[in-house]
Design brief:
Number of helices: 24
Radius of gyration: 32 Å
Strand content: 15-25%
Helix content: 40-55%
Number of domains: 4
Number of strands: 21
Largest sheet: 6 strands, antiparallel
Oligomer: single chain
Shape: elongated
Length: 648
């Protein structure tokens, strides 16, 4: 009998739907340069790991929301009550592994590992689960991102991914699965290991109950020990017993009175289970209730499944719906902290809150923690709640110390943006006028960038700065001969604008509005304006303060690219590189009548030629915090002759 690839059409529809959503999102994102879809939004493993972080540290991981958590909990409940349905019906990595193994089967190169090698290799996924859970629970960062065969490719191997580890995982999930049935799933998948912990609930359940009783009795036992006990018990059960102890009544059961021993069920099992060898229920640890064997069996009722063929897909749909409903009803904070004299102020009814409903700079646990650290430096702010997925922040403060306006002013970060970088054009006006106006819906760096992009094509606008207010005030430096307040109002209050990013046309919708007509507040010469908005850099080192001006000389270069963002980020590298010469004591970039770089040095210890040679090396050697050194590409270029000046 010729084996059909997709005889179980119901399961195929689920698998194709998941892959279709992922691929469709990737294609859509490729044509929308400003679209950054959340590929973890429905990841159950990330949700469960983040829940562990929440229980251990009180904080969620990355940008994980309650949606992932409740889907993860739903998957675990399905495993306990029904079986490992996620692995066989929804997991995109499992689907890809299974389909590639079909290719291997057609080519005659696929095999199922058995015996001692199989049992030993199965322990690998438990080691990965332990480390993934441990590092997530102790840092609130999803450690599994580093090697996940799903997250790596869909994220474009972003900064959270360790490329070699992710590529190795992809190899295990794809290439190795051509030759060995479900290689990744059986031997490396941490979610598969976690699924087995809950499939083995009659062994792991009592461990969990004993742990809870001990904790309630006052015994201090960290979650790490519970994790270790659960993982160890399940790993040994799988490797030694080759079956799990489950409470689920749903098992595939052969009827030996009807079975003809044709072994069609064996050949159709994507896990490589010898279904025909079981006299009663199929209790193999790899069974995912995919029902491929049941649907492939040519003898009616020779293989039976309690609940019928529609139970697995129905249970999956119900689980997803309930998980999404619960997520709506029970939002979970990414970070929730109280400090200082919060309890005392709360008992005196002096605690009030400031709510930010759309703080765009908050996008993960890290950015939430940064905001908390800033808030904690103000003695009047005593607590914070953050929902990173919704970009919502609530700050708690003592009304006897500060006001709501004080809180907002402290959290606000004033900014300055120069739209006309580089050398001054020939038609630069002699004077620029400062126009100040309040702008509603302007608050953080993301909003500032919208204003920047809307104005950068306007030749009459040179730059702007922001300052706290309600609304936030922006001061625009403009050439009044080219643009006026009415023009600015029209540009800023447009409902959408376009710009080009990486060659793609991007459309952004915005909701800014001006408070009033604004006012002209000051006038600057072009040079004054440039000095005000120039990103000055000034670092002293090598005992600079031990020398007087009479002992120093200055080496000066024209630095026309000083406002290049890449160079600004690398100035610390240049400083470290130059500091290896004991005669160099200071590095400075500023605007005189043009952008310049100045290097202060002691003539008795070094000279201009040596310094110039340092600057022109292909690599910048930098000293790291641990005392080691590291080389970086030298991205700095200095054209024209340098000047040597005296400070006397």
């Amino acid at each position: 009998m010729k084996k059909k690839w997709f005889h179980n059409k119901t399961r195929m529809i689920f698998q194709l739907a998941v892959l279709g959503l992922i691929i469709g999102t990737l294609i859509f994102a490729a044509f929308r340069a400003n679209l950054n879809p959340d590929y973890e939004k429905y990841c159950p493993f990330g949700g469960i790991m983040s829940l562990g972080s929440k229980l251990n540290l009180g904080t969620m991981s990355c940008a994980i929301s309650e949606t992932q958590v409740f889907i993860g909990v739903g998957v675990l409940l399905l495993i306990i009550l029904v079986g490992k349905l996620f692995c066989g019906w929804l997991c995109p990595v499992g689907t890809v592994s299974e389909w590639f193994n079909k290719i291997g089967t057609r080519l005659g190169v696929s095999m199922t590992l058995k015996g001692i090698a199989d049992r030993i290799l199965r322990l690998g996924k438990y080691a990965l689960l332990f480390f993934a859970a441990y590092f997530t629970m102790t840092s609130s960062e999803l450690w599994c991102k580093k090697f996940c065969p799903y997250f790596g490719p869909v994220s474009g191997f972003n900064v959270d991914v360790v490329a070699w580890a992710s590529l190795l995982a992809i190899f295990g999930a794809v290439i190795a699965s051509i030759f060995f049935k479900k290689f990744w799933c059986k031997y490396a998948c941490p979610l598969g290991a976690l699924s087995n912990v809950f499939a083995n609930i009659l062994i792991t359940g009592p461990i969990l109950i004993v742990y809870i009783i001990l904790v309630l009795a006052g015994v201090k036992i960290g979650l790490i020990w519970l994790l270790l006990a659960l993982v160890t018990a399940t790993a040994l059960t799988e490797a030694i017993r080759y079956r799990f102890f489950s409470v689920s009544p749903f098992r595939i059961r052969p009827d030996k009175n009807l079975c003809t021993s044709c072994k069609v069920c064996d050949s159709h099992c994507p896990e490589g289970i010898e279904v025909s060898s079981y006299d009663d229920a199929v209790t193999h640890p790899d069974c995912t209730l995919c029902l491929d064997c049941v649907k492939a069996c040519p003898v009616h009722d020779s293989l039976k499944f309690k609940g019928g063929k529609w139970l697995p897909p129905t249970a999956i749909v119900v689980m997803i719906i309930l998980a999404l409903l619960f997520a709506k009803q029970f939002p979970m904070t990414t970070l929730s902290e109280r400090w200082g004299h919060f309890d005392e102020a709360d008992s005196l009814n002096r605690i009030a809150t400031v709510v930010f409903d759309d703080l765009k700079t908050i996008h993960c646990y890290g950015s939430a923690k940064t905001l908390q650290n800033k808030a904690a430096r103000n003695p009047g702010i005593l607590g914070i709640d953050v929902w990173a997925a919704n970009k919502k922040v609530v700050l708690y403060y003592d009304t006897a110390q500060i006001s709501e306006t004080d809180v907002k002013r402290y959290i606000f970060t004033p900014s300055r943006y120069n739209l006309r970088k580089g050398p001054a054009p020939e038609n630069t006006p002699q004077y620029l006028v400062g126009y100040r106006v309040g702008i509603w819906e302007l608050w953080d760096g993301v909003d500032n960038m919208h204003i920047y992009r809307m104005l950068e094509k306007e030749p009459g606008v040179y730059g702007f700065s922001t300052e706290f207010g309600e609304p936030v005030y922006a001061k625009f430096y403009i050439d009044p001969d080219l643009i006026g307040p009415a023009d600015l109002k029209k540009i800023i209050e447009q409902k959408k604008y376009e710009y080009v990013l990486n060659g793609d046309r991007v459309v952004e919708r915005v909701h800014f509005s001006l408070e009033n007509e604004g006012e002209y507040v000051d006038t600057l010469t072009y040079v004054q304006y440039r000095r005000t908005f120039f990103p000055n850099f000034n670092r002293a080192f090598n005992e600079y303060n031990d020398y007087s001006a009479e002992n120093m000389m200055v080496l000066e270069y024209d630095f026309p690219d000083a406002e290049n963002s890449t160079l600004i980020r690398r100035m610390s590298h240049l400083t470290s590189h130059l500091s290896f010469d004991p005669g160099i004591v200071r590095l400075r970039a500023f605007y005189s009548d043009r952008p310049v770089l100045q290097i202060y040095f002691i003539p008795e210890k070094t000279d201009a030629e040596k310094i110039d040679a340092h600057l022109r090396k292909e690599k910048l050697t930098c000293k790291m915090q641990d005392g080691s050194t590291r080389d970086y590409d030298n991205v700095f270029e200095f054209e024209g002759p340098y000047q040597v000046k005296s400070l006397k």
